[in-house]
Here is the input.
Amino acid sequence: MKNSINRIVIIGGGTAGWLSAAIIAAEHSIEKNLSSGDHNVKLCVVESPDIPTIGVGEGTWPSMRSTLKKIGIAETDFFRECNASFKQGTQFHNWTYGKNDTYTHPFTAPHNFNETNLAPHWQEVREKVNFADAVCPQSPLFNKKLAPKNIATPEYAFHVNYGYHLDAGKFAELLRRHCVEKLGVEAISANVTTINSAENGDISSISTDTQNEIVGDLFIDCSGSNALLLGEHYGIPLVNKSQFLFNNSALAAQIPYQDPEDPIQSATLSTAQSAGWIWDIGLSTRRGIGHTYSSDHTTEEGAHAELLDYIATTAGEAAAAGASIRKIAFDPGHREKFWHKNCVAIGMSSGFIEPLEASALVLVELSAAMIAEQLPANRKIMDLVAKRFNDKFLYRWDRIVDFLKLHYVLTQRTDAEYWVDNCQPSTIPESLQELIDIWQYQPPWHCDSDQIDEMFPSASFQYILYGMDFKTEINPMQRRSDREAGKRAMALFTDNAKRTEQLMALLPTNRELINKIYKYGFQKI
Amino acid sequence: MSNYVVLNPATHQNTHVLTDRGEAQGDSIQYALTYPLEFRNIQACYPIFFSKSSETGEFFPIALFGFEKNENLFLDKAGWNASYIPMMVERQPFLIGYQGSSEDDLKPIVSIDMDSPKISQDQGQPLFEEQAQPSEYLKKVMTKLESLHHGHEHNKGFIAALTAADLLEPFTLKITLDNGSTNQLIGFYTINENKLLELDGATLADFNTKGYLQPIYMAVASYARIRALIDKKNALLK
Here is the structure.
């Protein structure tokens, strides 16, 4: 019995399907026709001509730079074809007090982060300078809408760390073309009609309306939130997380710039509302603006009104009047497991939690990368790889829930039930509560991470905690190293201020740089 | 700063250009742009590297004269001591552009930098004779400017070919001088000789047809000039 894993079938051709295909195909040598005994992999993506892709997920993490590089897409092509722009972090408005307060979570870690924890030293100067500005040169760039690099910087390299804002539909299209033309992936346009089982409960093949049976050794479910294979076929249930994170609806709009040369934001803007928050993502050609909210705390009409108000304020009355708004409902949560038998879910089929901190695309990257790396040699060890995969991603989903919830529990807002409810102890995961208890007496640091490839490093926790005015009572007990460390920290603060000033003078605006990318492109070196 | 204005006999009847070279004439430059059509002459005197424009990120070849900003080791009291002076240096203080309604109907437009230290009202070479006729000097300049323009066009294809074949690589030159001090040259790029040796026959044939192959090897050969440049620098320390 042949039981090596050679034939991979991906169901669903949205961003998740094509990004997964590209990541796996870039790692393995892909052949369209397998001859027996071949060590190659055959990879096909079955996409329905009738189901439109959701096309949200317009923000990435910096990890997307290395993902794109590995896949073999030139950064210039990516910018030109996906209307992409630079994302250097997130800027939060009204999250702490609801009174025009702002803080940032930049992608660049605090200065000298591997060796020095600046957070305790910042406590002494916290009245004078906010945390992000004191430890990192990046957030001052946001206000001037500056880019993280200039045209002479090689592709994927940077002065300050960045990910992207992108048009999800165009991104899927670019990935598809790259997969088919460069990576040997087969695209099959068909609707799945039947899922056929083997005796051991594996999926042996799928039948479609246009093709013969498509046989596979491993099936990747990228079919969206219905989860055709993992959910509908195998009945793996969704673990609901709405007791922690209340948002279950979104209203999304695409808003044109008033002038095509309008400045482009350097960060995702996130503005808290009465029962949710509004994202504002600046692409090169338009803005993506949406409101994600809890339907238990407000009505669709109420959320709609707040969104229109935001659009009118930031883009003009005409833009608000002309806005076409799409509603998306979701159950916040993830599947009980992601890999079952010979089927693994990636993307919306594995779960979805509100877009705060843009965890959707990075989970696709991480899932596909683990499959590419750990691709089981044969069926016998697949169950072991599946167990590893499930353990790893259950852990990651829990960390995402913790990290997102952190943004809510630190609020001082009491003006709406939503914010009050978010601070109820019963809505806070125990693992997060423990961390918060510790952080009252010591700032986040490397020990807070359990795993070597933690999704959210302690740097991210620091930015959120101190951005939201969290108080850490530093133990007054002097340590031997304190005097020396204090001096070093002050030198690092000065150093950071100097570097900030240099970068402010050196870097072009996002708009200037993107125009140059269109005109000249980035060099590879 | 430069102040380029379009050259015309009425305005520039009395304008002269100083043709001797030295610090006062603005020749204290560390490097100058060059292009493949003059590599043969350049490599006889100077190392050829590649640099990136901070405005466009595009690569261009340069001839190196020194190891620090504003250091030109070829300048001495007598002038520019080398058998060949790069065209981009020679063209100073002029620029050439082309204007016209269509590709076939382009007329050369010559501009002159009136703020250049080479400009004089009574010394050096006159630009125009009586009756607004161009001087012998200006005629020579025009010829040079035209070949410069052609060289520049050819260079675009040359650079595109080099980058498409991944033939450029960043490099850092560390030199130790006789007095023990070290100089580091960063921000320049060279031909990656390993990649060059791996080029397939079809690419080599293509490069040869387009006139790119010879200048690539000229650039590689020019690295031998680094030694001469170090010797000049050491001589200054004595």
